[in-house]
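[job 4471] stage=fold_predict status=RUNNING
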Amino acid sequence: MRNIADFRNALPFWLSLGLVPLAMIGVTQGGWTVALMPAYAWTLTTLLDLLLGRNEENPDPQTDEDDLFWYRAITLIWLPLQGLVIYGSIWWITRSGGLSVLEQVALMFGVGVASGTIGIVYAHELMHQSNRGERWLADLLLATVLYSHFRTEHLLVHHRHVGTPRDAVTARYNEGFHRFFWRVLRECPASAWMAEKEKLARAGRPVWHPSNPFWRYGGLQLAALALAWLVGGWVGLALFLLQAFFAVWQLELTNYIEHYGLTRRQLPGGKYEPVRPHHSWNAPHKASNWLLINLQRHSDHHYKPDRRFPLLQTYSTDDAPMLPMGYPAMGVLAMIPPLWRRRMNPRVRAWRRQYYPDIIDWRAGAEA
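[job 4471] inference complete, writing structure tokens
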């Protein structure tokens, strides 16, 4: 009976499975159905957030891992499902000839929802675990969107330097998403490479040592590209690249939201204060946390990076800043920088007054 209860409790976090049949409908039927996947992940989830409200209850963080089986299962089975969605869509499109170019682009945007909004979020959960098999699943998921360096950048740079100028994916105050996106695409690969180079140097190894994960990253990404070409030829390769771009775009949209305008205090001597709950934006909305496996409990993730997603804690507004809506809705807002600034800049200024009332000058040099 307990297993049944555990399954029922975990079932809402399986919301992502709804994207698989929607992908099949879109690729085979075309027309307006190519919009079903983003409508499901963004519009429906936001409506459910409004209807279902918030979940501010905290699970017992000492819960035994054996009791989390049904929660973990969705992250473990997603890789073959994502492969089916990506390569199955490419196979059908390149053989049926039934979709226009515009429909193909729209469909790949939807596939990018599956591989980015879901796949990369699951990879993020898996890469933080000590289990070697889960870390490999993370690498395989990231290879399907050609963003393998994200693992290094996230683990070695972001978690260490979040809220400082060293972290590229901490969005600066007043920085629009479109400027942020292209900046991150330029800076993060080099930043990840340098982090691995420094790690190897500390171990007395050269950068070309076999233990450098960039060899694995490159091999897995080449395999993903080769499979796309084998399945669909040059058109298939182009479609694969398109979904990868859309997936990365959605990842960085989430990164933009998570820490926008939040900075850590620089201490005497140049070091920064420890990361605190108030250095991440959170959202306690039910449906979007189901879809994003509690990613919106982001402050606790930075406090305990290896904590399984079902056990992440939420905080009060006295301890951590809260967004007015879940990440999917805020992502739409971020795409329109003037509206984003109108909604978020006053919140950042209020955050500054609450946590750093002694800092008067918040210009670029003083933020750090």
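[job 4471] summary: The longest helix spans residues 213-259.
[job 4471] exit 0
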